[in-house]
Known about the structure:
beta-N-acetylhexosaminidase activity (chains A, B); homodimer; Beta-hexosaminidase (chains A, B); GH (chains A, B); alpha/beta; Chitobiase, domain 2
Amino acid sequence: MLSQRLLLALLSFLVPASALWPLPRQISTGNSTLKLARNFDIKISLRNAPKDLQDAVSRTKGRLQSDKLERLVVGRGGADAQAVRGGRATLSGLTLSLLDGAPVRSISEEAVVDVVSRSEGYVLHVPSDGSAAVLRANSTLGLLRGLSTFEQLWYDSDGTTYALGAPIDITDSPAYPYRGFMLDTARNFFPLSDIKRTLDAMSWVKINTFHWHVVDSQSFPLVVPGFKELSDKGAYSPTSVYTPSDVKDIISYAAARGIDVIAEIDTPGHTSVISKSHPEHIACPEATPWGSFANEPPAGQLRLASPGTIDFTTKLIKAASKMFSSKFFSIGGDEINTNCYNNDAQTQTDLAGRTFEEALDTFTQATTGALKENGKVPVVWEEMVLEHNVTLPKETVVMVWISSEHVAAVAQKGFRLVHAASDFFYLDCGGGGWVGDFASGNSWCDPFKTWQKSYSFDPTASLTAEQANLVLGGQHLLWTEQSGPENLDPVVWPRAASSAELFWTGPGQDAGAALSRLHDVAYRMRKRGVNAIALQPQWCALRPGACDLTA
Amino acid sequence: MLSQRLLLALLSFLVPASALWPLPRQISTGNSTLKLARNFDIKISLRNAPKDLQDAVSRTKGRLQSDKLERLVVGRGGADAQAVRGGRATLSGLTLSLLDGAPVRSISEEAVVDVVSRSEGYVLHVPSDGSAAVLRANSTLGLLRGLSTFEQLWYDSDGTTYALGAPIDITDSPAYPYRGFMLDTARNFFPLSDIKRTLDAMSWVKINTFHWHVVDSQSFPLVVPGFKELSDKGAYSPTSVYTPSDVKDIISYAAARGIDVIAEIDTPGHTSVISKSHPEHIACPEATPWGSFANEPPAGQLRLASPGTIDFTTKLIKAASKMFSSKFFSIGGDEINTNCYNNDAQTQTDLAGRTFEEALDTFTQATTGALKENGKVPVVWEEMVLEHNVTLPKETVVMVWISSEHVAAVAQKGFRLVHAASDFFYLDCGGGGWVGDFASGNSWCDPFKTWQKSYSFDPTASLTAEQANLVLGGQHLLWTEQSGPENLDPVVWPRAASSAELFWTGPGQDAGAALSRLHDVAYRMRKRGVNAIALQPQWCALRPGACDLTA
Lengths: 551, 551
């Protein structure tokens, strides 16, 4: 009764190097077992190796010691005991070097260069004869990516750290330059420790962008120099804030892990909380019934037609974007409610005969102009180009969120885009409605988006070859109506790893075959203190394919 | 624009004693603010107060110190600062006593008496003039329930512990005697610390039964005296087990918190793992395709027609049920797959002309007979009475799980029942499919069951008045295909609190009005180390009613 599928699953289980995630684009493996020497060391063959590369090496060495992950097979570590005892070769070292002519820059510098010219590729050779392993790249960022791969090779059997499938040869680089994760820290607040733990987990699966939806209508936790009143009055509490030094901390923590931080001040909608300190700038603040004035409570939008508000907003965008080192900064632009403006006498006066769309164009030119002065490229939500025809710099990046069916329309406008579609990548779906007094309510993006769903996404479906070049990549997103520090890890991991592989390895992989590797990701994350959830009963996790529908 | 609903919400927000959960059946409150004296103490007015009551008092005193929950209103603790400063009365003591003639037994003894005669009622009087509060009950168990209520009265404002709405008079007792929570520790394993934390949280909302689905086809973590080989071969690892001393620990921990532990050895289905140590007793072990032999992998059922297997099973049930102090023990009985037996030559031989149903009846009489010898009452899943017509003791308790629509049919058979219906009380729904290679798969009990859904349940719908007497209560259930220690708290809390109130306070309460109290439950749980999730953005949690659909 051994089906072909089960046979294939058993074969994949015999090639343990395939537990790597994301799967390298080129890999060849052998049949040898390789032990990690007790005195194993990692050498950086570089003069003046950057401090953050040295730190990355230290973290890798630490994890090689502390992961102690037993392989996910029946019998766990014990199943490999004989192979490990029999294995003769012992790996005593890994040497890191840059390819000839590559500039020596820190990971942190490389992590924030223009996304399309970012260099994340690497070549890793792990011999089976005990000679030193070699990791080469064109950048320290590439070396970091190679270290993440190297870390995933190792398992524990009764105290011995070993890899199977040596010699291992990997030549790797991402299919898409942008692989992100978005976190909303406004609907519910997340302490720095949660964000840092998330950045760590992101780096393990080579996600390179943290899209930080830092403020929204519900709260304003970002302390912006010169605009301290916004967080003083708008944060959930005096301690529920991100100070400039916190932001620096996050940026440098992220950059050292190869992650660019794209912050967002969503405008002109999603700004109700600004009314707490600047009532003069907000139309329809907390107006009821909220359903008439906003997509979710509380209502309130920047008075986009008022010269004073434009001045305030451009200065805020300028000050906020200056806090971040990324080339990109998001000015949002989603879910603008026209009824709010229609009912706001001040806005009607300020329009002075102009249409709402004309005023929005002026407003947006002001905010993108402010970004330009800071040398930043705007990121916007899809409505800015699909529902409103505002003037935007050609290099603007558009995030497609409402539906993956809108991708072609954005591409037709000639803008670069990031996949962030609710029907594939929203992590908050499936948890039922959060609006009160609505017992039968679903979350608007129901049903639950499984990891298989996002994994099955085709980034260039419905695009011409030329349009396909506009796709920078994609990301999972966590809106936090029903999330907080309590469920951050379980709601994000390992699901967000599925887009990490999709946009690194490329689409078209088989989810059924990938499942056993994703189990590996989740089990290893748990060893590292990230509460990634079980995708199956452990019985299934130890028996690749045995819980398939067709098994 | 202040709707009537919002007005009602604002009113409820002015009566903070209503943050109690479950809502007492009778409560009256006043308008005074009451501070907790620094030297506040709880006295037990009993000769030879049981140790577990003394411990419960210590825990309450500890939580009064450590909760430090600021009230969920705009401004949090600061909003009450003036009232707290102005409050003159200070509560220096709470006195616990039993009503005249009540026997002095420990909480642990009271927690396991026959569920229908269990005494959980209490009377609590908290005066507003500074004189001592009084808690009276007919049992130490009732005193424990009163302590849980008393703990929920207190908030923190800048270091001062205070209650609003004094004087407070409460006369309380549960609408239903059985209020449970079921955990499956077989599909994925949970360490003792997770179970204990869950028992704590259960006791805070007066849940009185832990239904422990301890073993299943995937793993056998229970170490049963005389049957050690089952866990030796069937546990996920040598440390993923519950030893007899662990079980004793759980039972006494639970009992001290007023919780009865009903363990389950599911038979004759859901027993595949027994084949690891006793292949002679299992039909179709791990047969493929599993879908033909079981509802989920791995297949495998006890050879119910074999005299040797009946002997083995009765001895196992006897030994396992002896480990637990509860009057109840579940022998399961769900999802028996006849195709498995039809294809098992041994079973066909053993049937020797009997029908499968006849053999099942003999098997069940043997297992219930074993329970009877131990003085235990059987608990079974609904199929045992609805799909099979086996002989069962009249006092057997039937758990209705497949659908709430089956309740009437069970009641018609005259059996006592517990509501455990998948369409209202399954916590594992909504997370997508877990079966491999099935990208579009939903979990079978999709969609997600919100707390509002379970809260809206009517325990006696479709029952006659006489049949309604058969309803013991109900419970939430967590099957753990996609759950483990990583997401235990977030997937359970605060949702499971909704059935706790439903079956304590009684049905028919308004979920919209209850939401603000449930926020209180979740925020307080977090203060106590239980990761209860956010039900809404904090903006909404601080503004009762403001995020209602009709606000």
